[in-house]
Write a structure and sequence with these properties.
Blueprint: H1 11-15, E1 20-22, H2 28-40, E2 45-48, H3 52-57, H4 60-63, E3 66-69, E4 74-77, E5 90-94, H5 100-112, E6 117-121, H6 128-138, E7 143-148, H7 154-159, E8 165-170, H8 182-189, H9 204-219
Helix pairs in contact: 5-9
Length: 221
């Protein structure tokens, strides 16, 4: 038993989410020991920021149990939650293809929890016509996760066009004064669109969990 690894065995009972393992900064050996414990206790896990090199270095018996997706750097260890519905209630919108790693992390997290999702990419405001071509489709879901770097104008524009909840996710995409996503974060935080919540930089996982909390709370009304 590894005394430095303590899985949160009661998280699902407390808040309805399985433990998610943030793999960045961990060695493949450390991740493997976590998976050993999870397998021993019959747990399924969502792995985030699992680099492809880490995945390749895992023992074969662990790799065989992981549904790995390299763009989002996410992995489903053991079977994810069964889908509970057919129609999507969340649309994940990425301003550009450079933002897809973050938007896909959000989409994969939703799918792990059995929530269907619509993914729309490359509709940033630099070519506003591309967004307007898809706006009717975006309006169909009650929650929209808007992922954008650089000036991060997309979440504000969407929050002014759709009636549902828009969750803004700034990304670290951009040059110079973009400052690793800080300009995008500040842009969304200072938005004039009312009721626009904001996640931390590159936090697609957090945005998906926020959407799930809203959906679950609404179902209790």
């Amino acid at each position: 038993m590894d005394h430095d690894i303590k899985l949160d065995l009661q998280r699902a009972a407390r808040i309805g989410f399985d433990e998610a393992i943030f793999c960045a900064g961990k060695t493949a050996g450390h991740v493997s020991r976590i998976l050993d414990q999870a397998q021993e206790k019959g747990l399924r896990l969502l792995l985030t920021r699992l680099h492809e090199t880490q995945f390749i270095e895992l023992p074969e018996h662990h790799r065989a149990r992981i549904d790995y997706e390299p763009v989002s750097r996410t992995g489903f260890f053991a079977s994810p939650h069964a889908p509970g519905r057919d129609a999507a209630r969340v649309t994940v919108v990425a301003a550009g293809t450079s933002d897809v790693a973050v938007s896909r992390e959000a989409a994969r997290t939703l799918r792990y929890y059995g929530e269907p999702v619509v993914e729309i990419t490359d509709v940033g405001v630099a070519g506003l016509w591309r967004l307007l071509e898809r706006i009717d489709e975006i309006r169909r879901t009650p929650i929209v996760i808007a992922v954008a770097g650089m000036d991060a104008a997309l979440p504000t524009v969407l929050a002014g066009l759709v009636p549902g909840l828009v969750i803004g996710v700034p990304t670290s995409v951009g040059y110079g004064v973009a400052q690793g996503g800080n300009s995008a974060l500040h842009s969304i935080l200072s938005s004039c669109a009312p009721g626009l919540p904001v996640m931390n930089i590159d936090n697609g996982y957090g945005a998906a969990c926020a959407a799930l909390r809203v959906l679950r709370a609404a179902s209790e009304l």
